[in-house]
Amino acid sequence: MADARSLEASTAPPASEIAAKAGFSAIRYAQCWEDADILLAALDVQPHHVCLSIASAGDNTLAILSRGPERVLALDLSAAQIACLELRVAAYRRLDHPQLLELIGARPSERRADLYAACRAGLSPSAQRFWDTQEHAIAAGFGNAGKFERYLRFFGVRILPLLQSKATRAGLLQPRTQAEREQFYDRRWNNWRWRTAFRLFFSRRVMGSLGRDPHFFQYVTGDVAAGLLARTRYALTVLDPVENPYLQWIVLGRHGAALPYALRPENFKAIRDNLDRLEWRRQSLEEYLASAPAIDRFNLSDIFEYISAENYAALLRHICLCARPGARLAYWNMMVPRRRPESLAEQIRPLHELAAALHRQDKAFFYSDFVVEEVI
Predict the structure, then answer these.
(1) Which of 60, 148, 169, 226 is deepest in the core (most CB within 10 A)?
(2) Using 50, 70 and 90 to split pLDDT, how confident is the model at 52?
(3) What domains are defined for the chain?
């Protein structure tokens, strides 16, 4: 392994492929739509670990922080996404837990402008300038402010009531056994209107226009909507909707009784107590790896499906250069399969059984695969 690291050390990491194609000026994700419960189980963060996390909206970076690692480094290409992380950090520092839920939009509130004002002094000047122009987003709860949230909210609030009655929508969130959930889905939920509207709304064309970025689909093949529909059935039957915060937000247009890991009251203090261990940068992963410290744990979100297979392999090689032996990588595939290539078999070991077991529990159900790998 030492020879391999030395051999590669003189080679610069690839430039960020997606940065040259997609725009990053607006908020794409005001929430992390990746299940922090399985992320934390995969990474097994320990107090001596240095962790690297794709910032996104900040939730899962803060979830990692709750485990008390030595240091967490958050990266994102987007100033808007870094601003989301900054506002979360300020809210954890300056608000209590119920106020945090109000400001994010997880609970109703008429005082979000005042809550933002209480957090504003904790923001950098650039984040202040960003959020000062987002009065509507603050008033609505800034966790609703992303393009992806608006897309899902439109489906849940505008489209879903045309497909299912109020009683049926409420019934989805009632406690049931798995057998009862399967019967409910097959007999009441899975009508022709549901199937037709779902396949249209979650098609590559509509999702690329309203929910994500068309460039994110460059390497996608096959029927996008069909795969998502199968995963949705799994989430509504095998998994329990009563315990699923991501599903509840889509159906209700807000958080229900279930909350993502970083918003649960039992995790609030652990996150707040460890905020001084967090750093963030507006920078691509590729650029950061050129001078990165030794890292033990990597939360890589789903960034690999936006780049070519060749750039994916090159980026993995450079991750190995700054990873300590035994370091773990966790990442999701939504529509593009990305798993360690055979060319890196001597540097990275897939943890297939762990990843498969965790993927079966994944409450952020739209991902086709969850990958956990270990640096040798």
Answers:
(1) 60
(2) very high
(3) 2-94+261-375 (3.40.50.150), 147-252 (no CATH)
